[in-house]
Design goal:
Elements lengths: L5 E5 L3 H11 L4 E7 L11 E8 L2 E7 L11 E6 L2 H12 L3 E2 L4 E3 L5 E6 L1 H6 L4 H12 L6 H8 L2
Parallel strand pairs: 1-4, 5-8
Antiparallel strand pairs: 2-3, 3-4, 6-7, 7-8
Helix pairs in contact: 4-5
């Protein structure tokens, strides 16, 4: 097991969510599913803890009940090389969820994601402050990030 693993708390959709996430990211898989026994606390045979891997990163998903829900205080960032990657991940992760500003979205399970093209931090860190400001202003007006729109704005 890796040294630090992200642990996600779901009401009762941990297995469904893990299956969805592994369908989104190539080279991903369900590693293990621990199911409730007769002693509970959930119904016997249902998933209690799901271990899954997304692009080499391990996660644990617990069916812990409705006491806790996700907030934007924690999000998962998806590093994208191209606009096509941004478009693909955005479509798959936002389906049934909610689009947010500046490349953020909530998936159908309420988990927040940032779908970020590599060009964005490059433009925001541009040594020309006016160019960086124009890129920032453009990003602030976007939901899904449009790489060419950022470049065009930065170039004035």
């Amino acid at each position: 097991m890796q040294k630090i693993t992200t642990y996600l708390w779901f009401d009762n959709q941990a297995e469904e969510a893990a299956e969805h996430y592994v369908s989104v990211f190539a080279g991903s898989r369900i590693v293990n599913v621990q199911r409730h026994g007769e002693a509970g606390p959930g119904p016997a045979g249902t998933a209690m803890l799901v271990e899954f891997e997304l692009s080499g990163q391990r996660f644990l998903a617990l069916n812990g009940g409705p006491q806790f829900t996700f907030t934007e205080a924690v999000s998962l960032l998806v590093d994208c090389e191209t606009q096509e990657e941004v478009d693909d991940y955005w479509a798959k992760l936002s389906e049934g969820g909610q689009e947010g500003p500046c490349g953020w979205l909530k998936d159908r399970y309420g988990l927040s994601w940032q779908v970020v093209p590599r060009k964005l931090p490059e433009l925001l860190a541009d040594p020309d402050p006016a160019r960086a400001d124009r890129a920032m202003k453009a990003m602030l007006g976007m939901k899904k990030i449009d790489v060419q729109g950022l470049v065009d704005a930065a170039d004035g």
